[in-house]
From TrEMBL:
Native organism: Pseudomonas putida (Arthrobacter siderocapsulatus)
Protein name: 2,5-didehydrogluconate reductase DkgB
Keyword vocabulary terms for this entry: NADP, Oxidoreductase
Binding positions for substrate per the UniProt entry: H97
Reactions catalysed according to its record: hydroxyacetone + NADP(+) = methylglyoxal + NADPH + H(+)
Length: 267
């Protein structure tokens, strides 16, 4: 099993907006859909998939357990509820959404429950999201080496997370990049615009191609069909060594998301 490199994110999309986004994406050839319990759109995603006619075994569906469901007696029942909303018997990837230190449930308890969900066949693979190096190490200790498929982290040309990504690579854990466009901030970057002009590409394609070329998986979202189609073309864009070196210099620790009580101490 492995993590597909290109998928559709659904963060902040609900109702008809997410239904249309997922259906358009599936028509365009996307086969990877990323959602989460806290997005409150799993039922909409399930509806869109059902109406699309795409067979379940062609899809790769990810969801994430929310912090209030981390306790051993809550995690699996909450997942079963998610599966019902998504209209499927299993997800391909199940993540712990945030480490949430101090929320009353310790890491060994929720990681063991996550491993149990896999054992029960409710998910094909397990992973984490927003974990730093230390917490990822602790998670590996609980579930065993080779069990954590990915760490889904905020990553963009402005936040390159080199220490954490190097550690994950060392451990054989796929990096999934979310917010690769930094809430659209990178779209106005003159360096990226220059590289885009050189390749007759869009700035979004350049940022996504950069992440893909570093071996990361990406899950950009959009409500616009033309952007969904355009983003897919990033898979065919090959940046040269000079492009990659110029983008490496854009690092500014530009973190967009770090909620109190949920986020770890970042590396």
């Amino acid at each position: 099993m492995s993590i597909p490199s290109f998928g559709l994110g659904t963060f902040r999309l609900t109702g008809q907006a997410v239904i249309d986004s997922v259906k358009s994406a599936l028509e365009l050839g996307y086969r990877v859909i990323d959602t989460a319990q806290i997005y409150q759109n799993e039922a909409d995603v399930g509806q869109a998939i059902a109406e699309s006619g795409v067979k379940r075994d062609e899809l790769f569906i990810t969801t994430k357990i929310w912090v209030e469901n981390y306790a051993a007696d809550k995690l699996i029942p909450s997942l079963r509820d998610s599966l019902q909303k998504l209209r499927t018997d299993y997800v391909d990837l199940l993540l712990i959404h945030w480490p949430a230190p101090g929320n009353g449930v310790e890491l060994p308890e929720y990681m063991a429950a996550l491993a149990e969900a896999k054992k029960l066949g409710l998910t094909r693979q397990i992973g984490v999201s927003n974990f730093n190096i230390d917490l990822t190490r602790q998670a590996i200790e609980v579930v065993g080496k080779g069990e954590i498929a990915t760490n889904q982290i905020e990553l963009s040309p402005y936040l390159q997370n080199s220490k954490l990504t190097a550690f994950l690579k060392e451990q054989g854990i796929t990096v999934t990049s979310y917010m690769t466009l930094a809430y659209g901030k990178v779209l106005k970057d003159p360096v990226l615009a220059d590289i885009a002009a050189k390749h007759k590409a869009t700035v979004a394609q350049v940022a996504l191609a950069w992440a893909l070329q570093l071996g990361y998986a990406v899950i950009p979202s959009s409500t616009k069909r033309e952007n969904l189609a355009s983003n897919l073309l990033a898979r065919d864009l090959k940046l040269d060594a000079d492009d990659m070196a110029r983008i490496a210099k854009l690092e500014r620790n530009g973190r967009e998301v770090s909620p109190d009580g949920l986020a770890p101490i970042w590396d």
